[in-house]
Amino acid sequence: MSAARRCRPPRALAGLFVWRLRNTGVRQIPYRFVHLYHIANDRLITFQYFNFLKRMYVTQYNKDLSQRAKPKSNSIVSPFHELQQPDQEKKVVHKISPVSPVHQSWSETSSRNELREMKSAAETEDSVIPVGAESKDRQWKEMKLRLDDLPGILARLSKIKLTALVVSTASAGFAMAPVPFELTCFLLASLGTGLASCAANSINQFFEVPFDSNMNRTKNRPLVRGQISPLLAVCFAASCGVPGIALLTLGVNPLTGALGAFNIFLYTCCYTPLKRMSIANTWVGAVVGAIPPIMGWTAATGSLDAGALLLGGILYSWQFPHFNALSWGLREDYSRGGYCMMSVTHPGLCRRVALRHCLALIGLSTVAPVLDITTWTFPIISLPINLYISYLGFRFYRDADRSSSRKLFFCSLWHLPMLLLVMFTCKKSVLEKEDKGDVPGRSHERAMEIRLP
């Protein structure tokens, strides 16, 4: 008990001392913070000071880097500036010559050659070349349209060669119709079909300007090069399309006019956007090419008969070996332009479809005498050329190279006119049709003649 009593006073003193320190510590905490804050301000140890030191270090470091780096030389420098500091120019060239690349780009070589020419001109002739004169020459310039160039520009805008092919197929359809030939109707039908084709081709180029600019085959078209304004192109298309459809409707017959208007709609509003969406554009484009001979037939007869459908079927099948072979050699261009073609996305299908329709031409030629459009000599005479294009189609299907595709394409160029020419020579005469009473549009006239006394 005595030992416990002896330990109590020291414990009590220790507790009192701790309580005193706790009270004084809590009271002095705010004062200590204020004191430390004043010390920090006196010694400038703040966040702003560290930030300032950081900026100073970065500025000094960048200054060293900028002194070490070689300044970028201007492509065009005033000759007086070069003559004033020749020593400095030589020193810089001497320093960077060991690290210069071995293969220089064409732009760097041309800029240095231009710089040397400017130096020599300044030394010999003492002439002053203004700064930026060369850059102004290389800027985009607005092309001025001259009246002498307008016919050629409009011809390329309307794809005059394609238009001529369309008119020729329409003329073949008119000539194959089993009715007497009428020159006035033939001229009106040909003119209206040609104007409708010009309108469709112009609208097609108007829609495809951003995509044609990426292709080597189409980058020189008038709208891409800026030789003609888009407004003028649209006005030209309207000035061709409206009179063309009016001629076909009023001067020929309403059925032919309706086919012409439908063909313009199909080409511009269906085929053109489908070229960037689906490979179905090839089949739609084949329908567009098959309508002109049907228009020629309806222009002559005024009715849509089996003969018109047969001519349309021949043109429909012919376009697949023709276009598929052409697109095979332009796969890179079509990929760059963003067009969805069979030759790009489905190369195997592209070759198979070309071969199928080459063989289909043999079958369609055999159907012609069955429908009483030609004599039986037509499938016999046309068999060699149909077999030859089928052979080239098989070569294209088997080899799948550029050589076979080119041969098939060039064969299609002379195959169609020769096939239509043979078909025309083997056409059944109008007298045979009249004897059988199978001439469209003539049965009603013959009945009226029998009733007359």
Walk me through what this model shows.
The protein is mainly alpha-helical and 453 residues long. Among the domains are: 136 residues, Tetracycline Repressor, domain 2 (Orthogonal Bundle); 126 residues, Four Helix Bundle (Hemerythrin (Met), subunit A) (Up-down Bundle), CATH 1.20.120. 77% of the residues lie in helices and 0% in strands. Helix 8 runs antiparallel to helix 9. The C terminus is likely disordered.
Summary, kept brief:
It catalyses: heme b + (2E,6E)-farnesyl diphosphate + H2O = Fe(II)-heme o + diphosphate. It is built from 22 helices and no strands.
Provide the structure class. Answer: mainly alpha
CATH class of the domain at 146-281: Mainly Alpha
DSSP helix fraction: over 70%
Instruction: Give Rg in angstroms.
Output: 43 Å
Biggest pleated sheet: none
Which regions contain 5 or more consecutive residues with pLDDT less than 50? 63-109, 121-138, 442-453
CATH topology of the domain at 146-281: Tetracycline Repressor, domain 2
Shape, per Cα inertia axes: extended
CATH architectural name of the domain at 146-281: Orthogonal Bundle
Order of helices and strands: HHHHHHHHHHHHHHHHHHHHHH
Distance from N terminus to C terminus (CA atoms, Å) equals: 166 Å
Number of strands: 0
Number of helices: 22
Strand content: under 5%
